[in-house]
Specification:
By secondary structure, this protein is α/β, with parallel strands linked by helices. The protein is about 45% helix and about 15% strand. Helix 1 crosses helix 8. The chain is globular and about 70 Å long.
Length: about 270
């Protein structure tokens, strides 16, 4: 797929994998990128990236990715200004890590402490439901544009019209202390497989990448002790993955129409039980 001249949207776009992907797409000639994030510095980061790239390419949108009205405003504004949104990488994510079941043995009687339902729902809202609906809306942008032009089922000679990459995780296979995060990332696999089957009717591909532990604010929040003692010893590279390494793989997935389904970028992650 030719990325030059396309319009992209990235959530979680001002840091980590999202920011690295935005920069990678800009270097591939993508015309415009909606930089979506809830950070207070969303606009300033977009301005900084535009100065670095020496062109006005990053368009900042600040808001909560789970907000349906916000999502629609972003797409409506992008479509009005730049036409259909061809590319989508919904990279925003959170963690709320802790063991699923704890026992307070000091209490009398012994007290059961289960993982918080409110934390579980919030993680699923941000890490599962939100990325699915940003992806659906991107596919819908292409589908609506085709309908306006009187086009029906996509044919190969038209070339691919759009592409989506969902951000999974090595934790989708299960990971101690990540009951909510692992559930959300595993759920994205089913969404990707289904959307890939449906969206190709409109000429839109959908893939998923499963990064290993990457040097992002989310992983840094785990603390140096956990990274050094529980993460790095379980990887073949014995270091955190760089965001730009994951970004390169995402750009590859967007560009190469022969590649579909899942890509593991895990630095040789082999956790012990």
């Amino acid at each position: 797929m030719e990325l030059n001249g396309k319009t992209a949207l990235i959530t979680g776009g001002i840091s980590g994998i999202g920011r690295a992907t935005a920069r990678g797409l800009a270097l591939e000639g993508v015309r415009t990128i909606a930089l979506v994030d809830m950070g207070e510095d969303t606009a300033s980061v977009a301005e900084e990236m535009n100065r670095e790239l020496e062109r006005e390419i990053m368009i900042p949108y600040r808001g909560d990715v789970v907000d349906t009205d916000f999502r629609e405003r972003v797409f409506a504004n992008m479509e009005e200004r730049f036409g259909l949104v061809n590319l989508c990488v919904p990279a925003a994510g959170i963690t709320r890590d802790r063991l699923a079941v704890k026992i307070d043995k000091k209490s009398d009687p012994v007290k059961l402490d289960l993982y918080s339902e409110s934390d579980f729902r919030r993680v699923l809202d941000v890490d599962l439901i939100a990325p699915i609906y940003w992806a659906l809306r991107c596919a819908g942008s292409v589908a609506q544009d085709r309908a306006k032009r009187g086009l029906k089922r996509w044919e190969p000679d038209e070339m691919v019209q759009g592409a989506i990459v969902l951000i999974g995780s090595v934790s989708s296979a299960g990971n101690r202390g990540q009951i909510s995060y692992a559930t959300a990332k595993a759920g994205l696999e089913g969404a990707q497989a289904t959307l890939a089957m449906e969206a190709i009717f409109h000429g839109v591909r959908c893939a998923i990448i499963h990064p290993g532990f990457t040097d992002t604010p989310m992983v840094q929040a785990l603390g140096e002790k956990i990274v050094q003692e529980q993460v790095l010893p379980n990887t073949q590279l014995r270091r955190l993955i760089r965001p730009d390494e994951i970004a390169e793989a995402i750009v590859f997935l967007l560009k190469n129409s022969a590649v579909s389904g899942r890509l593991w970028a895990d630095a040789g992650w082999h956790p012990s039980a």
